[in-house]
Amino acid sequence: MHLLDSPIRSEELLAKTINIRHRFYASSSEPLMLTELIAMAENNGDQQLVQHYHDHSLGYADNGGSWDLRQEISQLYDAGISAEHVVVFPGAQTGMTLTAQALLQAGDHAIVITPSYQSLEEGAKLAGCDITRVNLSPDDHWQMDIDAVAAAIKVNTKYIALNDPHNPSGAMMSLDSKLALVRLAEEHDILIFSDEVYRWLEHDPLTRSPSMASLSNKAIALSTMSKPWGAGGTGIGWVVCQDKHICSKLLKAQHIYAVCFSRAGEIQAMMALRSSDIIIAKNIQIIHDNLALLEQYFADNADIFEWISPRAGGTGFVKFKGPISANELANQLVEHEILVFPPAIFDCDDSLKQYFRIGFSRTTMPAALQAFRLFIDQQRPIWGKRVGA
Ligand SMILES: Cc1ncc(COP(=O)(O)O)c(C=O)c1O
Q1: Would you say the CB of residue 95 lies under 6 angstroms from ligand 1?
Q2: Centroid of ligand 1 to alpha carbon of 188 (angstroms)
Q3: Least packed by Cβ within 10 Å: which of 7, 195, 237, 264?
Q4: What pTM value is reported for the model?
Q5: What is 46-275's CATH number?
Q6: Tell me, which fold does domain 11-32+278-376 have in CATH?
Q7: Residue 1: band (very low, low, confident or very high) from pLDDT cuts 50, 70, 90
């Protein structure tokens, strides 16, 4: 398969909406400002790190991420994960595609849990894998059907790629179901690739369960500064795996593709990680405030929308019960300066053609919801009795 064989599903939509007023689809947290970050580091008494930021070499940073950053990242995980189990990538997207390239080969089979972020599946396809999709369903509250995963396993299955907490639904796997998946994968000698970029954004932090990377040494977990910390501009993502042999393959892959890191980005990421409590509490508060508005809106408009409350992250997948498809609804919304993600972005099958993704992790969401409300109210007389059909 060639890199550009599959259409990039969000490309056209994002290109034509570059200046759109309401980004009601956005999934990353409120962007951090550099001044804010430096002030936090100073408040933490991290003057040395601030000094280092103003004073660092612009030569190459270390392949796989500098050791100080890898140590800082490892502290986000349970005991058993240390700096040597962390490989830093330029963003999560590079992490997911290069991991697949490094660990899979032509003729392998991979199971991908869908709907999912496009690169999760593309990475495995590009590595030459045959793919089987296992769909999550709103009928199961977007919970993974472990029996369906088991049924999809073939003799050459090498990889199960999933995203938990889940974009777009905001669902979370239970610990029992994570453990059942780990048992299944270990029994069949299959690697689990767990995209956990929305971890640490659980709406109730007490519901957070261990990372897949802590549950099995054959599981690889992915994360990024862009979601919980709102610091995608640092260009820092990472994968974590207890198996050092796997980590060394990832370091080799990185040598080939992405050796050039930004030390400035690494230092910014360290500043943000050291202020995680403050930054994440602030971002969860934004999510809670926005969710309160959304819960009310969808309760008041239950004839036309079905809303399953998300439990983590800043995205939700809403069912539209009106007389047009969710793709068409999204097109009409764009005409009114509102961008939501239609099901086509996730290549959803027909059973999900009435679902669209919204994002609620930014302070701009209330204005987007207000514009959305006005649009829907204007359409109601046009849609008439067909609403809720
Ligand atoms: C599920 C999921 N994984 C990975 C990514 C990529 O993260 P990054 O932009 O930090 O590379 C995203 C971004 O939206 C995502 O939603």
Answers
A1: no
A2: 28
A3: 7
A4: 0.97
A5: 3.40.640.10
A6: Aspartate Aminotransferase, domain 1 (3.90.1150)
A7: confident
